Amino acid sequence: MPFRLLVPLGLLCSLLPLHNGAPGPDGTAPDPAYYRERVKAMFYHAYDSYLENAFPYDELRPLTCDGHDTWGSFSLTLIDALDTLLILGNVSEFQRVVEVLQDNVDFDIDVNASVFETNIRVVGGLLSAHLLSKKAGVEVEAGWPCSGPLLRMAEEAARKLLPAFQTPTGMPYGTVNLLHGVNPGETPVTCTAGIGTFIVEFATLSSLTGDPVFEDVARVALMRLWESRSDIGLVGNHIDVLTGKWVAQDAGIGAGVDSYFEYLVKGAILLQDKKLMAMFLEYNKAIRNYTRFDDWYLWVQMYKGTVSMPVFQSLEAYWPGLQSLIGDIDNAMRTFLNYYTVWKQFGGLPEFYNIPQGYTVEKREGYPLRPELIESAMYLYRATGDPTLLELGRDAVESIEKISKVECGFATIKDLRDHKLDNRMESFFLAETVKYLYLLFDPTNFIHNNGSTFDAVITPYGECILGAGGYIFNTEAHPIDPAALHCCRRLKEEQWEVEDLMREFYSLKRNRSRFQKTTMSSRPWEPPAGPGTFSSPENPDGAGEKKPAKQKAPLLSCPSQPFTSKLALLGQVFLDPS
């Protein structure tokens, strides 16, 4: 029996009048071109409202038509929306915003900022925009993509986060002061996702800048979480980064954990790292053994596997998209359809949904226009072409416009039961929700490139291929071109040879009166110790290092379809006494 016959339409029936692009009596799927234009109109209604009423604040308050700072003071919505502008085809506004950000954003400020949010939204957004700059018609400087103003901004922001990683475990604090570092009284309790969601941005930054410190600290944090898993293979929700002791022992795939699993998969693909993928697959076995029930995923005690919360969280809706990245399409579709029933029941996903009772959880009835279910629909539609996934996109457009559209943008839905609104429009609405909707309905977008077209770019390290597809989205839906990681680095042997030649050149310059060549050093060049330099926990002194042998092509291959997954994080969800 078709799935749609099993699902009560509930509240959504009153929200969805038939449009020209909606399925007709013959069951035809929604018209992608029609909904693509609807989504574009949604974006500009929200984006223009932010510019007119909220800039330079971080986010728009749509009910009072003003702005406020939320995650720092970075004009965050502008950074988050930048790559969406290009995906929608607006190169002129992309170019203008690049100039605005260079002139107005300053990270040398006395602000306490979330390490997690600053990384995924600011560092990720700037890196993505940097790598897309040439495609957007920006006049890039010589040496791009290995240099550029947006890259320097991303590096500056990331360096402000590094003091958070200076803990006995290597796992970062959750908050850092951008001017003074970690405050003396800062809590050492950090959620799992706040520790394990750095490898995509930080490895990209290390590859583009040549400074390994970013990737190094991200890898250490990942490994410390891996080493802290329970005997049954699960991780909890919050951990003390000073002692390594679990504070909240609820294990699941949702808030507080989510993007840790996501970044193991995406880090494996981005870096062609079989170890990261093996780690995820081990977690996946434990998750299926202890938390999955009838294609729902519950919360369990991490040491015993007993159910602690039989709820579905809206943030968990990224999981089918992540399953699609490892080829588990059948399980992904079954779980997606479960989540879609909840959407149909309410016209959105409540933050918490009690699975046995089939209803919302008290004080968790809201829907802040999150992207996760739409994101999974985009992944799965690319994999299957199933028209049910376009129907979810149609439902999202219709219900968001019907319930949350106001004069100054789109407002968070405070309660899905009575459609009360809250005075906030999160920056991820433009970074993710609208972007995934548009990509769901735009099969020929450059993001979906299958390798048939590409750009050849000359860098200081030789020719490099960009724009061939396989984009990996960070957890804020900022696309990273994996090929870019190979544009600014050589094999270690070649790097050492170039550095030795440069050293010889400057030595000759100093001793030109002798007209004598110096002897090239056979030892690899090492950066001087100083700010931002971390030593490897496995080999702190670098003793006994050898030049790596040439490696064979890795077994993991970069697929041609895009990769994306996002979970905006409710880091305190299990510590909230309410």
Automatic annotation (TrEMBL):
Organism of this sequence: Hipposideros armiger (Great Himalayan leaf-nosed bat)
Keyword Endoplasmic reticulum: yes
Xref: Pfam families: Glyco_hydro_47
Annotated GO MF terms: calcium ion binding; mannosyl-oligosaccharide 1,2-alpha-mannosidase activity
SUPFAM superfamilies linked to this entry: Seven-hairpin glycosidases (SSF48225)
Subcellular location: Endoplasmic reticulum
InterPro entries assigned to the protein according to its UniProt record, in alphabetical order: 6hp_glycosidase-like_sf, EDEM1/2/3, Glyco_hydro_47, Seven-hairpin_glycosidases
Assigned EC number: 3.2.1.-
Designated name of the protein: alpha-1,2-Mannosidase
Positions of Ca(2+) binding: T475
GO process annotations (BP): carbohydrate metabolic process; endoplasmic reticulum mannose trimming; positive regulation of retrograde protein transport, ER to cytosol; response to unfolded protein
Cofactor(s) listed: Ca(2+)
Main location class: endoplasmic reticulum
Top EC class for this record: hydrolase
Physiological role: Involved in the endoplasmic reticulum-associated degradation (ERAD) pathway that targets misfolded glycoproteins for degradation in an N-glycan-dependent manner. May initiate ERAD by promoting the first mannose trimming step of ERAD substrates, from Man9GlcNAc2 to Man8GlcNAc2. Seems to recognize and bind to exposed hydrophobic regions in target proteins.
Catalytic center residues: E117 (proton donor), D258, E351 (proton donor), E372
Similarity-based family: Belongs to the glycosyl hydrolase 47 family.
